[in-house]
Amino acid sequence: MPTVSSVNVNGVRAASTKGLLEWLAATEADVVCLQETRALPVDLPSGFLAATAGWHLTLEPAAAKGRNGVAVLSREAPVAVRTGIGAAEFAGTGRYVEVDLPELTVASLYLPKGSAGTPKQEEKDLFLAALATHLAERREKALADGREMVVAGDFNIAPAEADIRNWKGNLAHSGFLPHERAWIATLCASGWTDVVRAVHPGVDGPYTWWSYRGRAFDNDAGWRIDHVLATSGLAARAEHAVVERAPSYDTRWSDHAPVTVRFGPP
């Protein structure tokens, strides 16, 4: 089974000038899920295209220029591609793309951020409801076809107190609201496994996002909001899971860090 990485690049054009290309050249991942690419195919920088020349790129941009966007890079060619979560109101938002590889289905997800008590939170909650239905259907279909499945990306939700350094100060903030955490818990109780947490039980973090403000990165005052969810059979094969945190603030090429999971053979 493959090694899967996921990272919110915070704009593929900007990240390509800061270190993304070097990371892609060095990664041993077989599949890389990207979020917040913010680029149409014609906008992809030449350096990124050169760095991914040996990969198969499946890009789902948003209809709104410069917004959202998800992608899957795979060493093997996909045998099928699907976009969206089956909800018309979220069509063209560039938040979900799914590919079938020879033995595995992989989805890249960029979930809305939300803002408590605003229409943005209402939109996020509608997305959560539609996504839960979609993921249940996709999981059942994959298992019926004898396939495992991974959903990797920026969920914009920290599932528990251990997943956010300042959890007491964020109890009323989107990303740590009780109903959002309950949504993740229900998802994991329905047959999905939070692989990083399963590999690293009982510890704080490892965090995947740090604000650019203040000294959040230097103080490791982060959030674990980037997740790799896998069907139970695949999750049981996880041999290694790591957050590839930059060694210093000035070497970051995104406000997120890649999350990488290596799965062993059946």
UniProtKB/TrEMBL annotation:
InterPro entries: AP_endonuc_1, Endo/exonu/phosph_ase_sf, Endo/exonuclease/phosphatase, ExoIII-like. Its cofactor is Mg(2+). The keyword Chloroplast does not apply. Belongs to the DNA repair enzymes AP/ExoA family. It holds the Pfam family Exo_endo_phos. Keywords: Hydrolase, Magnesium, Metal-binding. The keyword Chloroplast does not apply. The lineage of its organism: Bacteria, Bacillati, Actinomycetota, Actinomycetes, Pseudonocardiales. It comes from the Bacteria. This is Exodeoxyribonuclease III. Residues 6-256 form the Endonuclease/exonuclease/phosphatase domain. It comes from Pseudonocardia yuanmonensis.
